[in-house]
Design a protein that fits this description.
alpha/beta; Aspartate Aminotransferase, domain 2; Aspartate Aminotransferase, domain 1; 7-stranded mixed beta sheet; globular
């Protein structure tokens, strides 16, 4: 989504000059609660960014007898927030990417487990096994903290083969059919909803604790009224046009995937708009990436993920012209088939 200023509801002041702990605008309250309900949670509130949100989450946890377990491949912002908990002596342990059995095996001791993970891994093209993670934390009255930035606004309830994103755009819990007071969601709206704002969503009890112990709501500026206006507009657009936009996105993902002739290359990403090409060698990846950039095609050269090969990634959106995607796949196919491409170099 995109939000031109003339499309947003008007506001009387960009900011009220007061911390959220002292004053919370009606839009802030409404946006926090509305997005929480969209995600299938009891309560929520808005924060300026995921860094602010995770900072407060780890501040709360550092005051409790918990042990933190995290997926080392999750988004880096969450790991930055772990620094305070580590300094306070909270045990912090990684577990193998999306491996629920290893998490279960590692959850020992008397401390309450708190598990951190991304809801959806765009590099793998699949959801984390949140059901299994939830079983681990629920059995010991723990907490599962999920960064749902990737799937919020894209994935929703009741996905099918014909409609793989499901309905509503409520994110990973709706997509997997999960609901539990043992889950806390941290979700930026900057991706699908186009708003640089973060929502913390969870049980009424957990959200109340976070508000009461938050330092960012005391010492940092709250989200501006411009950001909140865009968030309210995004909710309206999702209700009125969200399904149409998601259908348009899926059409573009299908067009891109079906147009590629991969040969010895592999494509990951599944139904998600983040698609990555896996090459037979790092040299091949760098060659194709360099040629694509020279031709004006915006893509990313990514470090290896669970392997040794670089990847060439593409980020699709619902506004891209279909003919542009067809042309991109044609160019990619020509480069992959090029006799000058070094396919088997081990460098």
């Amino acid at each position: 989504m995109q939000h031109a200023h003339r499309q947003l509801p008007p506001w009387s002041a960009l900011t009220y000059g007061k911390p959220a702990a002292l004053f919370e605008s009606g839009w802030a309250k409404a946006a926090g609660q509305a997005f929480a309900v969209l995600q299938g949670c009891q309560a929520g509130f808005a924060m300026p960014s995921t860094l602010h949100a995770f900072w407060d989450v780890f501040h709360l946890l550092s005051q409790q007898q918990v042990a933190i377990y995290y997926d080392p491949y999750m988004y880096p912002i969450a790991k930055w927030g772990m620094l305070e908990a580590r300094l306070k002596g909270v045990p912090i342990r990684p577990f193998a990417h999306q491996q629920a059995a290893e998490l279960k095996k590692g959850c020992r001791g008397s401390r309450t487990p708190v598990v951190f993970t991304d809801g959806w891994c765009p590099r793998c093209g699949k959801a984390a096994p949140l059901q299994q993670y939830l079983k681990v934390v629920r059995s010991r009255n723990g907490l599962l903290v999920v960064d749902d930035t990737q799937s919020l606004g894209v994935l929703g309830k009741h996905p099918t083969k014909a409609n793989p994103y499901g309905y509503g755009g409520g994110g990973i819990l709706k997509y997997l059919g999960l609901e539990s007071p043992h889950i806390l969601l941290v979700s930026s709206l900057a991706k699908a909803f186009g708003v640089p704002l973060t929502i913390l969503s969870g049980s009424t009890r957990t959200i109340k604790q976070l508000k009461e112990t938050s330092r960012c709501r005391v010492h940092n500026s709250p989200p501006s009224m411009a950001h909140l206006a865009a968030a309210m507009q995004a909710l309206k657009l999702n209700s009125r046009q969200g399904q149409k936009l998601r259908q348009a996105l899926w059409k573009r993902v299908r067009t891109f995937r079906n147009g590629l002739e991969l040969g010895k290359w592999h494509l990951k990403g599944g139904v998600f708009p983040f698609q990555s090409l896996h090459p037979p060698s790092n040299t091949a990846a760098k060659q194709v990436y360099g040629q694509l950039r020279k031709k004006g095609i915006r893509c990313l050269l990514l470090a290896p993920h669970l392997g040794t090969k670089n990847e060439v990634a593409f980020i699709l959106n619902s506004r891209q012209p279909l003919e542009e995607l067809v042309q991109t796949t044609r160019i990619v196919n020509e480069l992959i088939r090029s006799p000058h491409l070094i396919q088997f170099s081990t460098s």
